[in-house]
């Protein structure tokens, strides 16, 4: 039988303990989550947390000095002594970043370890030499599974009174502004959505050459600039599974410097443009934005990377380009790609909810769009859609009529060509963002300005259109 590795996270265990050392009041936020020392996998962490619990129950202050005096030194011999290990924990503290979410993650890992142990017990009890009846085995397993289940649901139930108190408190502190979530980067889109909301999965879909990647690259920049301006300590995490980090960075330079992306890539910029690009590169370097271009990621690897970056850089939003390049589970076989994509979208929604941040994922559309006279995308066009429509809280389609009209150019010198030229001049710089689904808001569409040369998206107004003509 294949040996099973018990799930754990040494990094998060150390982080939670360092947070408790930094501020004892943190315990009040997680005492109902970390219910006993078994939540920690490593023995030295179990010993530390057990002693912390005793201190907290007696309302004694926990410090490196007070704690090291009561710890059993035998668990820390390889680290020098208990005090040295506690000092290393204290030194590793990186700030109070999503402490409750990380505590819940440790509790989840503990439950998974218990399930693995239960499965091993089932194998042991089922050994024919033990003489256990099937009924005895079932009853034994049911009792242990029930105990695990009771532990897992401890924090999931709240009275309507508690929920109402949280809701009213949130309303009291909410500013009377349009954006209640993370800014989308565009005024009309903010008006329609209220911003990207925490715990939401947002899917941005479109056919090739519509500007999907360009749109979210623009949005990641707008959000990073907003985070920096507000000084909220948050950052943007961008997963690029198709393009390299350098290619994404070049796009960002092209957007902010408003220079032709092809000419920049081929080194054909004017001296003035080169100076501008250098200036913009310095500004971009100061943004709280991180790019991960690891290819062929599984949903589990994405979850791990997001958690790590949340601890390290306090991630406020995640962008993923794009959904169909993710794998659900490298070790599992699926009957169809549709089934696997369904697992991926469910996983992304779970991550968004667990960590309480919005996740924006790009998605391809099927070729069925091209078969219709009306090329505007619909929910049914989501390629390998599986449960994308069901799992997503917000589905946005990007549509550029000019892309299709460009391919129907009539013969020059004809009346039809004159009409075509006028139509092209009206729509060439316009891109339509269609809100096809919004779980907690209206559907509708907004028009944005789009410059295909620099891949710049911005709010649409008459000035931009006139400048582009």
UniProtKB/TrEMBL annotation:
List the SUPFAM superfamilies. Answer: N-terminal domain of DnaB helicase, P-loop containing nucleoside triphosphate hydrolases
The record's listing under InterPro entries reads: DNA_heli_DnaB-like_N_sf (IPR036185), DNA_helicase_DnaB (IPR007692), DNA_helicase_DnaB-like_C (IPR007694), DNA_helicase_DnaB-like_N (IPR007693), DNA_helicase_N/primase_C (IPR016136), P-loop_NTPase (IPR027417)
Q: Residues in domain SF4 helicase? A: 175-464
The record's GO molecular-function terms, alphabetically, read: 5'-3' DNA helicase activity; ATP binding; ATP hydrolysis activity; DNA binding
Q: Which GO terms describe its biological process?
A: DNA replication, synthesis of primer
Tagged with keyword Isomerase: yes
One Pfam family cited in the UniProt record for this chain: DnaB
- PANTHER family documented for this protein: REPLICATIVE DNA HELICASE, REPLICATIVE DNA HELICASE DNAB
What does the UniProt record say this protein does? Answer: The main replicative DNA helicase, it participates in initiation and elongation during chromosome replication. Travels ahead of the DNA replisome, separating dsDNA into templates for DNA synthesis. A processive ATP-dependent 5'-3' DNA helicase it has DNA-dependent ATPase activity.
Q: Which NCBIfam families match?
A: DnaB
The protein here is known as Replicative DNA helicase
In its UniProt entry, the species of origin is given as Candidatus Xenolissoclinum pacificiensis L6
